[in-house]
Amino acid sequence: MGKMAAAVGSVATLAAEPGEDAFRKLFRFYRQSRPGTADLGAVIDFSAPRGTGPGARKVVRSQLSVSSVSDHDAHRAGLQPVSKWQAYGLQGYPGYQWHWVKQCLKLYSQKPNVCNLDKHMTQEETQDLWEQSKEFLRNKEVNKRRPRSLLEKLRWVTLGYHYNWDSKKYSADHYTPFPSDLAFLSEQVAAACGFQGFQAEAGILNYYRLDSTLGIHVDRSELDHSKPLLSFSFGQSAIFLLGGLKRDEAPTAMFMHSGDIMVMSGFSRLLNHAVPRVLPSPQGESLPCCLETPLPTVLPRDSVVEPCSEEDWQVCTSYLKTARVNMTVRQVLATDQDFPVESMEEKKTDITTEGFCHLDDENCQVKRVKLNPDS
Ligand code: OGA
Ligand code: MN
User: Fold this and answer.
1) 6 falls within a domain
2) Which ligand is nearest to the CA of 156?
3) By the 8 A CB rule, do 242 and 15 touch?
4) Which domain covers residue 239, as residue numbers?
5) 78-114, pLDDT tens digit by residue?
6) What is the pLDDT of residues 15-64, one digit of tens each?
7) pLDDT recorded at residue 153
């Protein structure tokens, strides 16, 4: 409580913008925050300070459905037995996080999935971001002043029912198969949280650099809000702001660390939220300790996660030293529901609706220009 007052005090010192709501005020505060200073004193940390080992994680009473997921299925998805999970924070086996990071960079970024680069580049140019970027990334230290590789220009990828950023809708006619490994992981996590029968139908993957932000928004485009939204974070830590149903409610700030899973369900499913800040690693460009080990020891025969080769690991490591990757998984339709039939009128208004640029909300125009491959 005392800590919160300190942060609110500092916010007041920021030049107030006319008509600014409480959420936006704190968004600006954290966007400008200095890591390692009192600025972050009010940010809730679900984990114990780094370096004191996984056992030191703050224990929050969790209400997980331990019997819904067998230890074996958890293991297949690269997760610890549900009995070991802690509310909001779960420590994956070292090594397993790499599987998801590698999938986000190497596999999910490929066609038929959709990404931000598609608008500015041909299919041939975006064909294999990984192949085109891996040498660049492995030599990152040597050549700091080189142009950004394609992977470093990647901001978002959509999976399954592809989210339309302009109409803010999903539609039946823009669908490609959802990755089965990520669907399996999501089903286990949802079941452990009491949501049996969760169907992973759409995904938005966010690729953050240290200067990226995610604007204040509510995820309301899914048609069944009784289903949870799952969010998995990897790489550098971020400040996550969770607000209220309205923008004029001040948000609560919390850290989102590598391996953390956030489940937004029930009342929190439709709350305003944002990521105003990705934090650089405390000791220069380094990795969170849970990502230091490349390979898991033993995997079950029917595991959905696979070992990451030394070579792939090097590329991922180089990328993640200055980046954060976030996967969000959504069930769009209620079980057995179909998309409602849209009239021609509704389709027309879709196109004219003002577009919402998800990542880098603030500098949307500027960033879009920067994505030009010639620059
Ligand atoms: C989203 C989202 C949060 C994050 O993709 O809708 O809110 O932690 N992501 O990146
Ligand atoms: Mn969201």
Assistant:
1) yes
2) 1
3) no
4) 2-370
5) 888 888 876 554 444 555 889 999 999 999 999 999 9
6) 557 778 989 999 999 999 998 888 898 887 877 544 333 333 433 455 68
7) 94
Question: CB within 5 A of ion ligand 2: which residues?
Answer: 219
Residue 375 lies in a domain: no
| Residue 195's CATH number | 2.60.120.590
Residue 333 lies in a domain: yes
Number of domains within the chain: 1
Distance, CA 46 to ligand 2 centroid (Å)?
20
* Ligand 1 in reach of 29 Cβ (< 6 A): no
Confidence at residue 61, expressed as pLDDT on a 0 to 100 scale: 53
**Span 320-344, average pLDDT:** 92
Q: Is residue 143 part of a domain?
A: yes
Decide: 157 in ligand 1 pocket, CB within 6 A: no
Mean pLDDT of the chain: 82
Is the minimum distance from the CB of 273 to ligand 1 under 6 angstroms?
yes
| Alpha helices for the chain (secondary structure H) | 2-13, 22-31, 71-76, 96-102, 123-126, 129-138, 150-153, 180-192, 310-320, 344-352, 364-370
Give nearest CA residue, ligand 1 atom 4: 326
Secondary-structure percent of the chain, ordered helix, strand, coil, rounded to 5: 35, 15, 50
Q: Tell me if 219 CB under 6 Å of ligand 1.
A: yes
Task: Note the pLDDT tens digit of each residue in 125-148.
Answer: 888 899 989 888 887 766 667 788
Residues in the chain: 375
Residues 110, 132 contacting (CB under 8 angstroms): no
